[in-house]
């Protein structure tokens, strides 16, 4: 086995970058060629059908079956020209993975011959069995059916030989069983709530869009090294492994030149991404060794999220070609940075105004401040819920660990905006307020300088930071579906905008001019957010934990407990009043979350136990036997002085014994704890019990990592951190 590890490492090290066949055309020429976008639609659809479809996409007008049939025909023609043989409804169940079931296009025609056929009916709706997907008991046992229904706002795309149709996934009784359905409802809620406010500033506005720009962090590991690590294969992270002598302490990985194998992988990934219409913009080395990041140009939130889901799959496929495996786990390696997925989020009108960017004139700036402050208020009110939205068994390793994000959701504004808010508060009530767009161009009292965008200081410890024209929700995990976080954020903001509009209307009804009415409504909110949710200091410090608790922010660190934020009366009111989740859906989803949490830790615990017994202890004993042999020989060779000569060996033998028995004892205790946890009926109680088991895994790894440190390198069966992290 030891020989095997050595060979694997050698082979991995020798691998060279693959040649990537670069298309002859420019990316802008093949961008979106695998997406049924508007250009393609125009080519393959009759103008009337095209108009009806665009009306459906832009204005939600339903398609009749005749039109749907024609759309399906056009899609089929286009798809077949790309070699497509199958179609699938592509959806996002609560497994956190995407799901697809392929059907071939083959059908018998009326004369019994085979043809390719795709009907409007199968474009619009299908009925997969919902019982095998997590549903939190929503699916009554007598009715296993679930529906997938086409989401025309996200374009159909081709993967390999399959036409993929983005869909929502709901139960027979109408409850959402996925991420997309609630997200779409929440996006509509925020648009509906923002619209009347935007219209006060620009009556021509008819729609407000949410934008998402995700930054995806990930690790790459050579596939041969990966295959020798059962923990990576089964859990996505290393459950054991002594720290490498060199890791990220030299800061020499961040933004460093891309290793050639990695560069080839990225090049191919980008080509595939562009073909799928994903506008990948940025690529770079991240802080930890073998950690990387990519980010696209932001886009409409629902579409951007689909693209993130698509690219996570494509990454895996492309990586395998390059003999890598992508790790999307939030914490694949202890002791170095984990991976997140920053969600850059903003709102904009259909007239092109970005609502979270300072405006061009005083009016625009007042609108900006209005949205800015209300978003902070929403984050404040629902800070526990926002944390719950990003909590998971895997993200728990980042949350609250000494790494963004802390387990407290606060907002970072930066110096400029903090000053602006303070100045606004100081103004006497009723003063006509103008917020200057450009320095010196107006009689404005509060100025937002032009250089504003470059002026936002960076605070890496804040989970929710204002970055000049958007907020960056940094707490989202690298493996997560962004929709979980975006649904909660959108709901919270929609609700707050509703409250604000209600209060503003009272001021307006009292006859105040708009500017004064807006400021008078905003002021108490500004006071409150400054006092509570805004925090520009070090989010990792212990003082902040105390201070945050004093301010009334949620400081819960246990993931299973965090989920309870979804079913508080306030949250139920939030989601039901906006029609996003019913109480039944909220409860079901929490059951799924607790269940997933327990199962993930259960798998880790099993793998840990087996690796301890099957990999670690045998290696340690083999080395111990070699040492014992050495002591015996010493005794024979030096009957008088052997003790002295064998002192190192004796100490090691003892030390190995201690670690082995410590390890075995801890594994046994963990197995016992698991038995007790498994016997619990209640999902929440069980998740809490598994939370304790998760902590015990950290204790189990200590003797293992100690043994790795002392056991003969040749005998150690598992690729070490220094190999996993530095070979690429
Ligand atoms: P950082 O410096 O934070 O690492 P990146 O360039 O890696 O920045 O990523 C920033 C992300 O934010 C990109 O996806 C970008 O398109 C997105 N973004 C920029 N402006 C906005 C905006 N107004 N709304 C939403 N996302 C935005
Ligand atoms: Mg970045």
Mind explaining what this structure looks like?
With 728 residues, the chain is of the alpha+beta class. The protein has 3 domains: 147 residues, Glutamine synthetase, N-terminal domain (Ubiquitin-like (UB roll)), CATH 3.10.20; 396 residues, 2-Layer Sandwich (Creatine Kinase, Chain A, domain 2), CATH 3.30.590; 130 residues, Four Helix Bundle (Hemerythrin (Met), subunit A). A hairpin with a 5-residue loop joins strand 10 and strand 11. The protein starts with a helix and ends with a helix. About 2% of the residues have low confidence. The structure holds adenosine-5'-diphosphate (ADP) and magnesium ion. The site of adenosine-5'-diphosphate has 14 residues, from strand 9, strand 11 and strand 14. The site of magnesium ion has 3 residues, from strand 11.
Which distinct ligands sit in these coordinates?
adenosine-5'-diphosphate, magnesium ion
Summarize model confidence as the mean pLDDT. 92
Percent range for β-strand residues: 5-15%
Portion of residues within helices: 40-55%
Question: Major β-sheet, in short?
Answer: 9 strands, mixed
| CATH homologous superfamily caption of the largest domain | Glutamine synthetase/guanido kinase, catalytic domain
| Distance linking N and C termini | 22 Å
Number of domains: 3
Number of strands: 19
Envelope shape: globular
CATH class of the largest domain: Alpha Beta
Structural class assignment: alpha+beta
Counting DSSP H or I runs of 4 or more residues, the number of helices is 25
**What is the annotated CATH architecture of the largest domain?**
2-Layer Sandwich
Provide the low-confidence segments as ranges: 438-444, 449-455
Radius of gyration: 29 Å
| Multimer state | single chain
Q: What is the CATH topology descriptor of the largest domain?
A: Creatine Kinase, Chain A, domain 2
